[in-house]
Amino acid sequence: MVLALTQNTARQREILEIVLGNGWDYMRGILTVGKADEPQIPPPEVLRNILVELGPVYVKLGQLLSTRPDLLPPRYIEALTALQAKVPTIHWSEIEQVIRQELHRPIEEVFITINTNPIAAGSIAQIHRATLKDGQEVAMKVQRPGIETIVAQDTALIKAIAELVGATEVGRDYDVVSLAEEFTKALQAELDFTKEAQYTEELRQNLSKTRWFDPKDLVIPSIHRHLTTKKLLVMEWLEGQPILEAPIVPADYSRDGEQKRREEITTLLFRAFFQQMFVDGFFHADPHPGNIFYLKSDQVALIDCGMVGRLDPRTQQILVEVLLAIVDLDAKRCSQLTLDLSESSQLTELARLEQDYEKMLRKYYNVSLSQINFSEAFYEILQIARANKIRMPGNLGLYAKSLANLEGVARGFNPEVNLLNEFKPLMTDLFSRQLFGDNPLQTALRAALDIKALSLQSPRQFEVVLDRLSSETLQWNLRIRELSGLRRSIDDSANRLSFSIVVGSLIMGAAIISTGAHTRQLALLSDVLFTVATLFGLWLIISILRSGYWK
Q1: How many other C-beta atoms are found inside a 10 Å radius of the C-beta of residue 95?
Q2: Looking at the chain, which terminus has fewer C-beta neighbours within 10 angstroms, N or C?
Q3: CA 69, CA 51: separation in Å to the nearest integer?
Q4: How far apart, in whole angstroms, are the C-alpha atoms of residue 476 and residue 469?
Q5: How would you class 9 by CB atoms within 10 Å of its CB: exposed for 0-12, middle for 13-18, buried for 19 or more?
Q6: pLDDT in tens, 270-315
Q7: What is the DSSP code string of 177-192?
Q8: 71 by DSSP, 3-state: which?
Q9: pTM above 0.90?
Q10: Share above pLDDT 70 across residues of the chain, in percent, rounded to a whole number
């Protein structure tokens, strides 16, 4: 950690200049009186500008934070969601060099033509259109030269800072070390295009097997694995436009026909993503309008599968129940499901949590269920969890962002969409899968085996309990979760009391010495004791004021 901080002196100076150049007036608040558990962060617009100026790695950090509504307030999520790096395009000569190094053979042996002007440019890669020797049109995603070095330097610095912050109470509450580790792994995975190829193929395979929609209506670009490397991704070229920009022309050219087609496409998108989230447990985590295309072949395509999320079966089941709890406006059920999802070890105040959900759901009481914004409601659930210091799994942020993007695209593409009507037909099937699985016979046999094992083991276990009761060897292991907070409070009070005693002792000792001080050495010792006592006293007063419990 210290090594990373000392090796990046020039970069640290650059970061400091950018930070100060953006006018962090809020930093004065850090040194003033305030609650210690409320970290000071810059306003959303300032934070966004700082991340953009710091470069592509910090832009990616901002994009990751935009998927964590459990950590940041809504206005920060909104400011960071559309964060894009200001990066110039790379000259073709440099891109060509990367392609030649990755192919290990002349480009002319693989491609007939290549458009040297990039179709798109991002912080990690550039995309070019090309034609293979067999005539297939492809898109080439080529990594920017030197990006690995920049990523390595900046992620090392971020992790070092995270370790320093992680030693504080705020750092432990927000688990900044794990967040930095998660960011580093995500960014390293994004630098390996073979992983994106793997994700793309997994999505194609999953969505080719479904009973909720016709797989022919949804396209995931195929990958040319023999040409794909860590720095070069070659995939099928899809001719189309972003879905919100594409004209929808039905076969009969009628307005009614267009609206009907829009409804069909909306249903297709919801069913495709519901399958990813609640059946496969592996989903495209960035379905913004630019990543959903309407093709000239009258099909819908999902592209850019580099960001994905995963949900285990237990989390899938709970999230389905969360949607139903929102529909039922059931604050108590939302509270219980939040605790079921939680990774926190400390118990929150359940009554306060229920009150927060009651306030949140109250605004939907006189609203038609078809008008409920489910992604907004789920965001609010995560924010309430954050306010109650309940730590939620990081993958829920990706789930919430995907749901918000999907709902935004659906409402933009088809303003008349009724989300509840899209959910209802799938709920019965989802609960059936959760109860009986994909193979009811196999599930029934497994349940029968569990019942048999329970019936055989129960008499023996009951006999052991009775034996221990009669022999007075039965022991109870009781764990009260609230005690950790109480213990921390008692420790803090004891520490402050100890410091108070030390400060008082130093003052008394200094006073006694100064009274009988006849030499310069004793007078100096008295001054030193007074100084130390003053510093300890000031620190004690500041810590009490910052704790917020002095009133």
Answers
A1: 22
A2: C
A3: 18
A4: 11
A5: exposed
A6: 999 999 999 999 999 988 888 999 999 999 999 999 889 999 989 9
A7: HHHHHHHHHHHHHHT-
A8: coil
A9: no
A10: 71
